[in-house]
Amino acid sequence: MKCSNIVKNCLILTALSGCATSSDFANPAWRPFKDIDGSVREISFYSWKVLETKDGKHVERDSHVAYLAKPLGENLKAKQKIGEMYPLGQAGENSAMATIFLLDGKSLNIYDEPAVKALAQAKTFDFYEFGGMRLSHARFTAKKAICRDFKGKTGVDLLMTTNYYPRNSFTDFYTALINVNLRRDNAPKEIGYTPSFTGSDTTLQHELKTEEAKQGKNIALLNIQEKASILFNIICK
Q: Where is the signal peptide (predicted)?
């Protein structure tokens, strides 16, 4: 299987579930994860070649897309598109992650200024992050507008889950459910953190629970810092 350069260099999906191409589309490798509503869902990733018109010319580029599984009955699943993924982070240092910024059901390119402006003025948007044997879904919610509330007294509510997969397991994982209010000039006063464990492999479950007991709360704080940095450094800078 040949992955595109973007996947190899910065999306790091090979560290989560591998790089699927259009030839694999009929038989996806579904990865389970626990979502922010507590349900366990399944996700898979694909790479495509697409044609775009730029300066009057047709240009081919790579498109990397995430899909959710939609049950259609016993052993049958349809693919529900989440959106196109874009790298976020230091690609040259291989530390970027595959991300989706989802506004009103549409995936936005975070490198387009109008997209950033739309997120700044929105009341809510969803953020997905994939790679490094973890998978996150975060929802940012404001009463008036994301950046207005983030810079004001109201703050922005963050609800998120991050799923961690030991040895890149497709069956066993640990989920951190986090809810917190983010404000630019104030540290969070209260942090909601609830760990949960999915799977039945005795060895993997022991590893997960041992690691969570040692590092769970610290990892949750790092997660909050990472998501707050999206507002600080990208959307509301």
A: 1-26
pLDDT at 90: 57
User: What secondary structure does DSSP assign to the chain, as a single string?
Assistant: ----HHIIIII-GGGTT---BGGGTTS---EEEE-TTS-EEEEEEEEEEEEEEETTEEEEEEEEEEEEEEEEETTEEEEEEEEE-EEES-GGGT--EEEEEEETTEEE-TTSHHHHHHHHH-SEEEEEEEETTEEEEEEEE-SS-HHHHHHSSS-EEEEEEEEE-GGG-SS-EEEEEEEEEEBTTB--S-EEEEEEEE---HHHHHHHHHHHHHHHHHHHHHHHHHHHHHIIIII--
The pTM of the whole model exceeds 0.85:
yes
- Let me know if residue 10 belongs to a domain: no
Average pLDDT over every residue of 19-23: 50
What is the per-residue pLDDT across 208-226, written as a single tens digit (0 to 9) for each?
999 999 999 999 999 999 9
In-domain check, residue 133: yes
Q: Model confidence over 165-181: pLDDT tens digits? A: 999 999 999 999 999 99
Whether 121 contacts 132, CB under 8 Å:
no
**Domain contains 8:** no
